[in-house]
Amino acid sequence: MNNFKISVKDLDLFYGDFQALKGINLDIEERKITALIGPSGCGKSTFLKTLNRMNDLIEGVKINGNVKLDGLDIYKNIDVIKLRKRVGMVFQKPNPFPMSIYDNVAYGPRAHGVKQKSVLDEIVEKSLRSAAIWDEVKDRLKKNALGLSGGQQQRLCIARALAVEPEVLLMDEPTSALDPIATGKIEELTEELKRDYTIVIVTHSMQQAGRISDNTAFFLLGEMIEFGETKTIFSTPEDKRTEDYITGRFG
Amino acid sequence: MEATELNNEYESRPNMSKSKWTEIWEKIVEIIFFLSACMAIVSIAIITFFIFIKGVPAIAEIGLFDFIFKTDWYPEAEILGIGAMIVASIYATLGSIIIGVPIGLLTAVFIAELAPDWMIKIIKPAVELLAGIPSVVYGFFGLVIIVPIIDRTFGGGGNGLLAAIIILSFMILPTIINISVTALKAVPREYKEGSLAMGASHIQTIFKVMIPAAKSGIFAAIILGIGRAIGETMAVILVAGNSIQIPFSILDRVRPMTAHIALEMSYAAPGLHENSLFATGVILFIFIMILNIVLNFITSKVGE
Ligand SMILES: Nc1ncnc2c1ncn2[C@@H]1O[C@H](COP(=O)(O)OP(=O)(O)OP(=O)(O)O)[C@@H](O)[C@H]1O
Ligand SMILES: [Mg+2]
What we know:
The complex is a heterodimer of chains A (251) and B (304). Chain A is of the alpha/beta class and 251 residues long. Chain A has ten helices and ten strands. Chain A has helices at 44-50, 80-86, 101-111, 117-130, 134-137, 150-162, 180-193, 206-212, 230-235, 240-246, and strands spanning 4-15, 18-29, 33-37, 61-69, 72-73, 87-90, 168-172, 198-202, 215-220, 223-229. In chain A, the strands form two sheets. A six-stranded mixed β-sheet of chain A has the order 6-7-8-3-9-10, sandwiched between helices. In chain A, helix 3 (101-111) packs across helix 4 (117-130). The longest helix of chain A is centred in the middle third of the chain and has 14 residues, at 117-130. Chain A is globular, with a radius of gyration of 18 Å. The model of chain A has no long low-confidence stretch (mean pLDDT 92). With 304 residues, chain B is mainly alpha-helical. Chain B has two domains: 2-62; 83-303, Orthogonal Bundle (MetI-like fold). Chain B has helices spanning 2-62, 64-69, 83-114, 117-132, 135-154, 161-185, 189-197, 202-213, 215-231, 234-239, 257-265, 272-302, and strands spanning 73-74, 79-80. A two-stranded antiparallel sheet of chain B has the order 1-2. In chain B, helix 4 (117-132) packs across helix 6 (161-185). The relative contact order of chain B is 0.13. Chains A and B meet through helix 2, helix 3 and helix 6 of A and helix 7 and helix 8 of B. Magnesium ion is lined by residues 44-45, 172 of chain A.
């Protein structure tokens, strides 16, 4: 029972004097979908960002405890560039670069030194296929990515993240800016991706967490209140606060 | 009940007259704004009108082709070709762009992305100061520092195209730096995050995502830099050597259009000679107009 991709131990995070995460302990299973739920401001995004060190960009952040990826401390033993190559991220707001669809997907591989056109072509097609958007864009690869719809942009961003062949995919409310149809497509997609990737997804939608995730962690005011199989959390939560939140009796 | 009603009425009256006064005051202020705006339009109209009314007949008399392509300038014989001056202006401007743009852009990247706070506190005021130095001081600096260095290194006196290019490069730096910094800072944070999240390095992110995303702003910076370089007069007069000739080496003495006008205006006899200087102004004016049109074209594309 040691197929944990990421292990978080006693993690505290401070923004200056403000403690945003308090003693988080959490193990993320390989090739499973882990959902993070909780009310706004409870620290879900902050936690997600500690997993690929995007918090490094923010000044005044202090972190205690450790996060291990395949047993290696990501704050000590792994170079941040290698880490982010292995732990990709999809943001809440689709953020394709203002360049062609092709260049968006090829961006990561190029940044990591892939130059050969044929190799890039292959990666681009494979990634776009994995993100279930290939058929929609295959005839307009040279067109600017900003011309795509919101849902297409988000799938393009997923493709872009997949192009560097990460092992873990972090998604911060990837569907909150999308309509139900686009949301459905992304949800289906996560089901597909779970075969090859470990996924951690932040969501505000209980239904979404229930539909797609294997495990669920409930956060409240910087603490992780409860963590377990999604089935269990949703049917028989141990903590009263979890139950209140899930049943909608909460803030 | 009654008391409150009375109170309300009592209060509302002075309010009424107060709002009336505010209204009149607002109208007056509006008119002052309008008149100020008119000043700008009227002055540009008058300037354009006078340059053209004196310059265009001169161009017609000399012949447009002869005026801008001939390189002989003998005012006594009424042989008036400013080809050499146009070439000098173009060379000096191009040269300053070739040197100034890379330095300015790298400085801008440094300020916008890389420099620690304490360093920005030094660099930013320095750049602002650079923008505030009067051009005659730049010229003086060129004369006592740059020109002797060029003379010692390459010989030939030191004043000439190279000296002008170096001084102009300094002078356009603030324009290029400030506008590029603004453009880089306006790049959405999400682009930068997206790139870093894929494991691209900070430098890769800057050159592959941020600079391309800021490119219209950077182009605008370059265009404004060109405008500043081509219009600069005083500093250029002091270091360019001012000989009327098409330069064949970067050390040759040159006389850009602005220097030409300023130098000859003081002694030009009224008539065709003087009017030909206005005509030179017309040509310069057209250059600036073209730059402005290009600039408008670029900035209007940003909105798309
Ligand atoms: N850069 C920052 N500097 C200071 N405090 C921050 C910063 N980012 C987040 N916080 C604070 O940390 C806490 C957790 O924020 P976080 O964004 O992780 O919440 P969240 O659970 O993702 O909320 P939401 O569901 O609204 O996205 C909040 O109280 C927030 O105000
Ligand atoms: Mg969040």
